[in-house]
Amino acid sequence: MRFDIITIFPDFFTGIFGHGVMKRAMAHGLIEAHTHDLRGFTHDRHRTVDDRPFGGGEGMVLKPEPMMDAVESLGIAAKAERDPSRETVVLLSAQGSRFTQPVARELSRLERVVLLCGRYEGVDERVNELACDRELSIGDYVLSGGELGAAVIIDAVMRLIPGVLGNQDSSAYESFGDGDEQFPAPGGGSGEVPRSTHGSGGLLDYPHYTRPPEFRGLAVPEVLAGGDHAAIRKWRRERALEKTLRNRPDLLEKAALSKEDKAFLDKLR
Ligand code: SAM
C-alpha cells in the first residue's frame, strides 16, 4: 500500500517513518510512504503557498494552485474517474467526518491513500471539491496542521494491513476491533486461551500485565498466573466490560454482548 502526503513540512514525517512497526513495514515493502513538499509546486520567488481569505477575517488560507498541482503530479486518477476501491484522496480537516477504526479498516483495503495537510485557516475549498473524496478529522479539537492527523491515519491504517503486525490477530482483538473470529485463535486451539471470547467484539481491550509479579505494592491479579484458561477468559471479559462502561459507555450500545455480559453490567450499574 502506498501513502502520499502533501505538506509544507515534509521533514515532520522523518521520525514517524523511522521507528517501530512503521519502519519495519516499510523495510519489508508492505507499505510505502512519500512526502511531497507543497512549496515545490509554487512558481514565485518566495515559494508562496498561502494568501488572504476572501471576505476578510483572521489568518491565511492555502492557495489552490500548488495543492492541485501537487495532487496532479502524483499520477492519481482525476476525481470523477477514480476507483474508490483502489485509491482515495483525503483532506485533513477539523470539519471532516470522524476518523475511526472502521474507517481505518476501510482505508487499509485500498492500494493508495493521498493525504492533504492543511495549515493556517485551512485549504481553499475548491481543492476539496476538485480533488478530495473525503474530509477526515482525527477528533473534536483544532490542530495547527494536518500533519499530525496524517501521521495518525497512516499509523492506524498500516497496522491493519496483513503481514504488518507479527501476529495477525493482534489487531482484530484490540480495542475497537471487530473480533469476528476471522483468524484462528493463537495456538490453533491447542489449549491456549482463545482471545475471541474475551477481547473486543466492540469493547475496549482488557488490562495487560507483565513481569514483575509485584510492583510497588501492586500484585498482578492472581487469576492470570493460575493457568485456568476459563477463569482468565472470564476475568478479562469482565475487566473489558468494566473499562468500557467506565471510559466509553457509548460503545456498549453497539458491542456484541452475551447474556452473561449484560448480567455483569447490570450488577455494575
Ligand atoms: N479554521 C479551521 C477550523 O476552524 O476548522 C482550522 C484550521 S487548522 C488551524 C489548520 C489545519 O490543521 C487544517 O486545515 C487541517 O488540515 C488540520 N487540522 C486541524 N484540526 C484537525 C483535526 N481535528 N483533524 C484533522 N486535521 C486537523
Automatic annotation (TrEMBL):
InterPro entries: Alpha/beta_knot_MTases, tRNA_m1G_MeTrfase_C_sf, tRNA_m1G_MeTrfase_TrmD, tRNA_m1G_MTases_N, tRNA_MeTrfase_TRMD/TRM10. It comes from the Bacteria. Residues 175-206 are annotated as: Disordered. The keyword S-adenosyl-L-methionine applies. Signal peptide: none annotated. It is found in: Cytoplasm. Its main location: cytoplasm. One of its GO terms (biological process) is tRNA N1-guanine methylation. The keyword Methyltransferase applies. It catalyses: guanosine(37) in tRNA + S-adenosyl-L-methionine = N(1)-methylguanosine(37) in tRNA + S-adenosyl-L-homocysteine + H(+). One of its GO terms (cellular component) is cytosol. S-adenosyl-L-methionine binds at residues 118, 138-143. Keywords: Cytoplasm, Methyltransferase, S-adenosyl-L-methionine, Transferase, tRNA processing. Residues 1-254 form the tRNA methyltransferase TRMD/TRM10-type domain. Belongs to the RNA methyltransferase TrmD family. Specifically methylates guanosine-37 in various tRNAs. Homodimer. This is tRNA (guanine-N(1)-)-methyltransferase. The lineage of its organism: Bacteria, Pseudomonadati, Acidobacteriota, Terriglobia, Terriglobales. The gene is trmD.
